[in-house]
Specification:
Low-confidence stretches: 85-92, 434-438
Structural class: mainly alpha
Strand content: 5-15%
CATH class of the largest domain: Alpha Beta
CATH topology of the largest domain: Nucleotidyltransferase, domain 5
Helix content: 55-70%
Keywords: Nucleus, Ribonucleoprotein, Ribosome biogenesis, rRNA processing
Oligomer: single chain
Organism: Malassezia nana
Strand order of the largest sheet: 3-2-1-4-5
Shape: flat
Subcellular location: Nucleus, Nucleolus
GO molecular function: snoRNA binding
GO biological process, one term: rRNA processing
Length: 528
């Protein structure tokens, strides 16, 4: 008897093959062209239902990896070995067809069942997959017939669970949302500043004193929306927008304002621009709250260490949380200062000590001379926190929602920052630059009564004015004597050079006369 093992979303199914000779037939696929022929060839013998989605994922994963799971081992033992008799007899009498060769070898090794797994049997499994609903519904009640609608529902649930298991996917871990949110937050800040500046410049023609009284851009726009023309300021209630002191100052300034008059049309456009400023500010607050919640879910340890905005900017600059986790602490320290780094390397100057981490509260609370050291320590702890946030999974013992490493690292760095601040204060006091600037350590002096060394003997003897003038005269005389001596020497050298030149000329003239006399004698001899 031949049994076919087939894994489904419902569980493991055993089909009995009615005709063993058709198993090796090249026209096997023709028997699955209709549901009737498929039900005639295969019958559902037994089914092992999965009790939960977790068990279904474990079973499907084990089959794909070629491993024998506990549920499948128990199912094959009960249906093949125990129902048919002893292990040796039943294992030799029946043949089990399996799609995975690795799984076939594992079943043979552990259970001793005769298993076959060949590439020619793919048509059989393809036909079972096409007519699975009909084969499962036509089974006997004892075998466990199944409704096709339940099969579709379970298949959909198992596919989602299996995909999530394979990809290790969690909707809360999507760092793309953080990258887009921090980019939009920066754009909103720029746009809000531009609109607020335009409102102040526009309304400043009508009420210029208001810009000096109200410095907050959002409050400025809300006051314009509530007051309108400055003449209405005295009758408006601004207690919900401004403190009592500012409200009184604003109303007093509105009565003596030097601004020009504007029309109703101008005020309508100013109101619309104020509405834009107010709506953008409200949406920015919502976006910031969303970013904080998302950062707490994606990178809780990094958020606890450096804050939501700095952590989000680090992730955005790296591209993703995983890319940031691959960076060393030295790179995280100067992340965001690449231009300054390359400029320093090009000009051979000192490299920057911090980048985006400069905006962290831990670096900000450090003394000016210790900011570089604090940035290095924050980068080291941030690298550990980022790797824990990026690489920790649900199977780890640590609670992912609790920022344990980040909170502990922040507490240690805060204590270290206080220690550095105290050390800096003590060094300033010792150098006379701190709060007690008058304190200086006294020099050591001997208190014994005895002869001491006269330090005055080391000083040069005092020099009077007359002696000083005499020394200057002597220096001048020496310089004049040197100049005269040098001039005489130059005259002597010139005279000697002149005499040498005259002697050379005399010798040349004498040699010329001798040459002339010899030539005359030669001519006379030749004529004779």
């Amino acid at each position: 008897m031949v049994l076919v093992l087939f894994e489904t979303a419902v569980g493991f199914c055993l089909f009995s093959l009615s005709d063993e000779g058709k198993l090796n037939s090249p026209d096997l696929y023709k028997h699955f062209e209709s549901e009737t022929e498929a039900n005639r060839l295969l019958q559902l013998s037994a089914i092992h239902r999965f009790q939960s989605t977790v068990e279904a994922v474990e079973g499907a994963t084990a089959v794909n990896e070629g491993k024998l799971s506990k549920g499948l081992k128990r199912f094959l033992t009960e249906e093949i070995l125990e129902k048919g008799g002893s292990k040796g007899v039943k294992g030799a009498a029946e043949t089990l067809v399996v799609s995975e060769p690795k799984l076939a070898s594992a079943i043979t090794k552990k259970l001793g069942i005769q298993v076959t797994s060949e590439s020619s049997l793919m048509d059989l499994y393809r036909g079972i997959r096409e007519n699975l609903a009909s084969l499962l519904s036509s089974g006997s009640p004892e075998a466990g017939a199944l409704d096709p609608r339940d099969l579709n529902t379970m298949s959909l649930g198992l596919s989602h669970s299996l995909s999530r298991y394979k990809l290790k996917f969690s909707p809360d871990k999507v760092d793309t949302m953080v990258v887009q949110a921090i980019a939009l937050l920066d754009d909103l800040d720029k746009e809000l500043n531009i609109y607020a500046m335009r409102v102040k410049e526009w309304y400043g023609w009508h009420f210029p004193e208001m810009g000096k009284i109200i410095t907050d851009n959002i409050a400025y726009a809300k006051v314009i929306r509530a007051v309108g023309f400055r003449t209405n300021a005295s009758s408006c209630d601004l207690s919900e927008i401004l403190p009592e002191e500012l409200e009184e100052t604003l109303k007093a300034a509105a009565e003596i304002s030097m601004g020009t008059e504007i029309s109703e049309t101008d005020m309508e456009h100013i109101w619309r621009l104020c509405d834009q400023v107010i709506s953008i500010s409200e949406y920015r607050a919502q976006l910031y709250s969303y970013l904080c919640n998302r950062m707490s879910a994606i990178a809780p340890n990094l958020t606890a260490l450096v804050g939501e905005l700095v952590g989000a900017r680090l992730i955005s600059h790296a591209g993703s949380l995983m890319n940031l986790a691959k960076q060393p602490a030295s790179t995280i320290q100067i992340l965001g200062a690449e231009k300054a780094l390359f400029r320093a390397l090009k000009t051979k100057h000192d490299t920057p000590k911090y980048g985006l981490l400069y905006h962290s509260s831990l670096v900000g609370m450090a003394p000016p001379k210790m900011k570089g050291k604090m940035a290095r320590m924050v980068a080291t702890k941030a690298a550990l926190s980022i790797r824990l946030d990026a690489l920790a999974d649900a199977d780890s013992k640590s609670d992912l929602s609790a920022p344990t490493i980040g909170a502990e690292s922040r507490a240690r760095l805060e204590a270290r920052a206080r220690g550095l601040e105290q050390r800096t204060t003590i060094s300033q006091i010792r150098a006379g630059k701190g709060g007690d600037a008058g304190y200086q350590q006294k020099s050591f002096s001997m208190q014994a009564q005895g002869r001491s060394y006269q330090t005055g003997a080391d000083a040069p003897p005092p020099v009077t004015v007359a002696e000083d003038e005499a020394d200057e005269d002597e220096d001048e005389n020496l310089q004049e004597a040197k100049k005269e001596k040098k001039a005489k020497k130059e005259k002597k050298e010139k005279k000697e050079k002149k005499d040498k030149d005259e002697k050379k000329k005399a010798k040349r003239s004498a040699s010329d006369l001798d040459d002339g006399a010899e030539s005359k004698k030669k001519k006379k001899k030749s004529s004779e």
